[in-house]
UniProtKB/TrEMBL annotation:
GO terms for biological process: phosphatidylinositol dephosphorylation. This is Myotubularin related protein 10. Residues 207-666 form the Myotubularin phosphatase domain. Gene3D superfamilies: Pleckstrin-homology domain (PH domain)/Phosphotyrosine-binding domain (PTB). Belongs to the protein-tyrosine phosphatase family. Non-receptor class myotubularin subfamily. It comes from Cyprinus carpio carpio. It comes from the Eukaryota. Pfam families: 3-PAP, Myotub-related. PROSITE patterns: PPASE_MYOTUBULARIN. InterPro entries: MTMR12-like_C, Myotubularin, Myotubularin-like_Pase_dom, PH-like_dom_sf, Prot-tyrosine_phosphatase-like.
C-alpha cells in the first residue's frame, strides 16, 4: 500500500524558541539613545537594554520596552513610551516616573521560568542561572516586574546582581545621601561651603540650637524649665541632642551625676507643657537598681516643683502597656501580606510567592479575618487609647506625666506626639507638625537608620514605628479633617520620604551619628566644612527638594480652620465649631458596657468568638446600667457631649467602627481599589475650587480698597490650592477626568496581583460589609 494506516512520526526539529503570540513585536532600536537622568554624585553601575516592564497583570499589550539601569541611588527604567493616564501625577524632582530608590527595595527576586527556578538575591551573592524575570518588592507596598525576553542573558544577570548589591549598603556612608550632599553643596576646592541653609528658608524649627528650644519654652509657658547645654559635643549621652530642656531646680552638676544611672545616659527630656502647668516628660529606665529609688525621687521632685500646684507626678510605663517593636513589625508584615500578596505558605519568606497566587480567592470572611488577625488596626487603636489616658491626666487631673520606656527612643516618640496633637492646635498646623516630629523623633534619637533597616543588616531591629505614628495621626485627621492644616496626601508623601536616603530627617539613629559620619565622609573626600563641624544634609521639611510649588499645594487643606478663622453671622463674629455626629454606626452595639462604649474593655470582660454577642448583651443589659463610670470614661463622655472646638482639645472616637484603614497609603497601588471620578478626592476638588474663589475675591477686595476703589492693575497672589476656580463666573470647573481615589498616585504598573475582580477584596472595595463573628462584630475593624 502506498499509504500506511500508521501515522509517521515527525522528524523535523526546530531550534528556535516557540513564538509568544501575546507579546508585542520585538522593539526597534530607537534613534535617540536612552540615558538615565542623574543627580549630583549619582553614577550608573550597570544597565541592560531591551528590557520589558510589565504594566498589565493579565496582558502584555500595555507593557513598556526600554533600558533598565542601576545607579548608586535608584533603579531606573527609561522608555520612550509613557504610561496611560499619567499626566496628573506629581513630578518628583529626585525620582522619575519609573524610578525606585534602592532604600525602598525590600527584596530582589530573580526567576528563570524555563528552568522553574527563583532566588532571593542579597549583597555579594552569586546567581547560577540566567534570569528571565526580575521582581522588586518595595517597602511602600509596590511590586515591580521586569522581563528579559529580548535582553542579553549576561547583561540581565549583571544588572540583577548590581541591584541586589547596591540595595544592601555595608556602611552608612555608602548611602547615597553622602555623595549627593558632598557633590551638590560642597565643592572639592571648598568654593561652596555648606550651601544648605540651616533653616532652608523654612519656618520649621530643627531644634538643633538653643534658640529653638527657648522659643518652644515661651510658646508653651513653661517658665519653670530651662535649656540645658551639658551635652554639647555629646559628652554626656551619645543619643541625646546637644540641647534639651530640664527643670530649673535641677543643676547641671546634678544632671551630670545622675546621667550615669540612666540607660545610655539618657537624662529625662521635657516634651511639652499644658496650659495648666502640667509637664509631659519622657524618661529611659534607670539601669542601677540600687540607685533607682533615690534618682527617681529626685527627678520627680524637680518636676513637681515646676508645677504651679506642686502636683505629684504620674508615671506611665509604656513597655508594660503597649506592643513592642517586634509586635509592630509582625503586624505590618501581615498587613502587607493581605494587601499585596498571599504569604501564608512561607511566613519567613513572605515575598517569595509566584505571582499567579490569588490571595483573595477564598471567602469574604477569610480576607476580613486576616485583616483583623494582622493586629495592625488593633495596635493603632491601642496607641490612641493610651494617648487619651495621658491627656486625661494632664487635662482633667492636672498632674505632670512621665513616659517611661526602657531606652526612650520608640514608643515614647509615638505617645508624646499623639498627646500634643490632641492638646495643642499649633501641632496641627503644617510647620507645627513638622517641628513636633523634628523635636520628638529626630532630635530625641529615634533609630531611623535601624528601624527603616536602610543597611539591611539586622531584621530584628527593623520596625515601622514611625509609620504607625503616621497612621495614628491619620486616624485623628480622618475624624477632624478641618482641624489640620495639611492633607492626607501630605501624610502619605511624608511616609514615602523615609525611603529617599538624602534627608537628614530619616537617615540616622541620632544627631551624634550624623555628625560623626559626615565628618568622616568629608575627611575621606577632602571636603572643606568651614566653620561647621559636619555636612549639612537637607531636612525633609524643605519640600522644594522634591516637589514644585504647584505640587506642594496638594498639602494644603481647604477645610482647615486656623486660630484666626472666623465667620460673621448676623453682625456677630463667631468661631467655627464642629459638632459630633449622632449617627449610630450599628444598632447591635447599643447598650454596651460603658468601658466598651468608649473603645476599651475591662480585663474581666470576655467575648465569645461566635453567635453569642447578642445573648451576652441581653444578659448583661441589667448590669450595664448599674456599672459605675471610671473618671477617665466620664472625661471622654463629657468631651463628646459638647461641641468640639477645632482649636482646642481633640479626642479620637475609639470604637473600631470609627477607625478606618488608611487606604491612600496601603491600597493606593491596587488598581481595583481605585474609584474613577470618586472617593474623597472629588470633595477635595470642590472644596479647593471654592476656597480658591473665596481667596481670590478677598484679595481683590483688599486691593480694591487699598487702591481707593480703583480695581485696575490688581496684583494676584498665588493660590494656595492645587485646583483653581474658573475665571468664568457661575461656571465652576468640572472635576478632571483623571481624578480617582488614588490621586495623586497611580497603581498602573504595580503587579501586586493578577486581578481581583469578583474576589472578596473586590466585593469589600465595592462596599460589601459582612459580619464575621461576635469578636469581629465587637471590634468592627472597618
Amino acid at each position: 500500500m502506498m499509504f500506511s494506516g500508521k501515522q509517521s512520526k515527525p522528524t523535523f526539529k526546530s531550534y528556535l524558541p516557540p513564538l509568544q503570540t501575546d507579546l508585542k513585536k520585538s522593539p526597534q532600536l530607537p534613534i535617540k539613545k536612552l540615558e538615565a537622568k542623574l543627580l549630583p554624585g549619582e553614577i550608573v553601575v550597570n544597565e541592560a537594554n531591551f528590557v520589558r516592564k510589565c504594566i498589565g497583570a493579565e496582558s502584555c499589550q500595555d507593557d513598556l520596552w526600554g533600558k533598565l539601569v542601576c545607579t548608586n541611588f535608584k533603579v531606573s527604567f527609561i522608555s520612550h513610551n509613557s504610561l496611560p493616564r499619567q499626566r496628573f501625577q506629581c513630578t518628583h524632582r529626585l525620582l522619575g516616573e519609573h524610578d525606585i530608590p534602592l532604600a525602598c527595595v525590600e527584596q530582589v527576586v530573580t526567576v528563570n521560568d524555563v528552568k522553574g527556578k527563583q532566588k532571593i538575591l542579597g549583597s555579594n551573592q552569586k546567581l547560577k542561572f540566567n534570569p528571565t524575570e526580575l521582581i522588586l518588592y518595595c517597602k511602600d507596598f509596590r511590586i515591580i516586574r521586569f522581563r528579559f525576553d529580548e535582553a542579553g542573558p549576561e547583561s540581565a544577570k549583571k544588572v540583577c546582581l548590581a541591584i541586589a548589591h547596591y540595595s544592601h549598603p555595608a556602611d552608612p556612608q555608602l548611602l547615597f545621601g553622602f555623595e549627593y550632599v558632598g557633590k551638590r553643596y560642597h565643592g572639592s576646592a571648598g568654593e561652596q561651603v555648606n550651601g544648605v541653609d540651616p533653616g532652608g528658608g523654612m519656618q520649621t524649627p530643627l531644634f538643633d540650637c538653643s534658640s529653638d528650644w527657648d522659643r518652644e519654652i515661651k510658646r508653651t509657658g513653661a517658665s519653670e524649665w530651662r535649656v540645658c547645654t551639658i551635652n554639647q559635643g555629646y559628652f554626656i549621652s551619645p543619643s541625646l541632642p546637644e540641647f534639651f530642656v530640664v527643670p530649673v531646680s535641677l543643676a547641671d552638676q546634678d544632671l551630670k551625676q545622675y546621667a550615669c544611672f540612666f540607660y545610655s545616659q539618657r537624662i529625662p527630656l521635657w516634651c511639652w507643657n499644658h496650659s495648666s502647668g502640667s509637664a509631659l516628660v519622657r524618661m529611659s529606665n534607670i539601669s542601677d537598681p540600687q540607685q533607682q529609688r533615690k534618682v527617681e525621687q529626685r527627678i520627680s521632685s524637680a518636676i513637681t516643683k515646676s508645677h504651679p500646684l506642686r502636683s505629684d507626678v504620674f508615671k506611665s510605663d509604656l513597655d508594660k502597656t503597649l506592643p513592642n517593636i517586634q509586635d509592630i513589625q509582625a503586624a505590618l508584615l501581615k498587613l502587607r501580606q493581605i494587601c499585596v500578596i498571599d504569604c501564608s505558605k512561607n511566613p519567613t519568606q513572605c515575598f517569595l510567592v509566584p505571582l499567579k497566587t490569588y490571595p483573595f480567592e477564598e471567602s469574604e470572611e477569610k480576607w476580613l479575618s486576616s485583616l483583623e488577625s494582622s493586629r495592625w488596626m488593633e495596635y493603632v487603636r491601642t496607641f490612641l487609647r493610651h494617648a487619651v489616658e495621658v491627656v486625661y491626666m494632664l487635662e482633667r487631673r492636672n498632674v505632670p506625666v512621665i513616659l517611661l520606656e526602657n531606652e526612650d527612643r520608640d514608643l515614647s516618640c509615638v505617645i508624646s506626639c499623639l498627646v500634643q496633637l490632641m492638646c495643642d492646635p499649633h501641632c496641627r498646623s503644617l510647620h507645627g507638625f513638622q517641628g513636633l516630629i523634628q523635636k520628638e523623633w529626630v532630635m530625641a534619637g529615634h533609630r531611623f537608620l535601624d528601624r527603616c533597616n536602610h543597611l539591611k543588616k539586622n531584621d530584628k531591629e527593623e520596625s515601622p514605628v514611625f509609620l504607625l505614628f503616621l497612621d495614628c495621626a491619620w486616624q485623628l485627621w480622618n475624624q477632624y479633617p478641618a482641624a489640620f492644616e495639611f492633607t492626607d496626601v501630605y501624610l502619605t508623601v511624608l511616609g514615602d520620604s523615609m525611603w529617599v536616603p538624602i534627608f537628614s530627617t530619616f537617615l540616622f539613629n541620632c544627631p551624634r551619628q550624623r555628625a560623626e559620619n559626615s565628618r568622616d565622609f568629608a575627611s575621606s573626600k577632602s571636603i572643606h566644612l568651614g566653620q561647621d563641624q559636619a555636612l549639612r544634609f537637607p531636612p525633609v521639611w524643605d519640600w522644594s527638594q522634591q516637589f514644585s510649588l504647584k505640587d506642594q499645594t496638594l498639602f494644603n487643606n481647604p477645610l482647615y480652620v486656623g486660630k484666626i478663622a472666623t465667620c460673621v453671622q448676623n453682625g456677630t463674629v463667631k468661631t467655627f465649631t464642629h459638632r459630633r455626629s449622632k449617627k449610630n454606626y450599628s444598632s447591635t452595639l447599643r447598650g454596651l458596657p460603658s468601658a466598651f462604649r468608649n473603645g476599651s474593655i475591662g480585663p474581666n470582660d470576655t467575648l465569645a468568638r461566635r453567635n453569642s454577642l447578642v445573648l451576652r448583651l441581653r444578659s448583661d443589659l441589667s448590669q450595664v446600667r448599674e456599672q459605675q463610670e471610671t473618671p477617665s470614661e466620664r472625661f471622654i463622655r463629657d468631651f463628646f457631649s459638647r461641641p468640639v472646638d477645632l482649636q482646642g482639645l481633640l479626642l479620637p472616637q475609639l470604637l473600631p467602627s470609627h477607625l478606618s484603614v488608611w487606604k491612600l497609603y496601603f491600597l493606593r497601588w491596587v488598581p481595583e481599589a481605585q474609584i474613577p471620578q470618586g472617593g474623597p478626592i472629588t470633595t477635595f476638588h470642590k472644596l479647593s475650587v471654592l476656597t480658591d474663589e473665596i481667596e481670590m475675591l478677598q484679595n481683590q477686595l483688599k486691593q480694591y480698597k487699598g487702591a481707593g476703589g480703583t480695581p485696575n492693575n490688581l496684583h494676584v497672589e498665588p493660590s494656595k490650592m492645587y485646583f483653581k476656580s474658573s475665571s468664568t463666573p457661575h461656571q465652576p470647573p468640572a472635576p478632571p477626568e483623571y481624578l480617582s481615589s488614588s490621586f495623586p498616585f497611580s497603581p498602573v504598573g504595580n503587579l501586586c496581583r493578577p486581578g481581583i475582580l469578583g474576589t472578596p477584596l473586590s466585593k469589600f472595595l465595592n462596599g460589601a460589609k459582612i459580619w464575621l463573628s461576635t469578636e469581629t462584630l465587637a471590634n468592627e475593624t472597618f
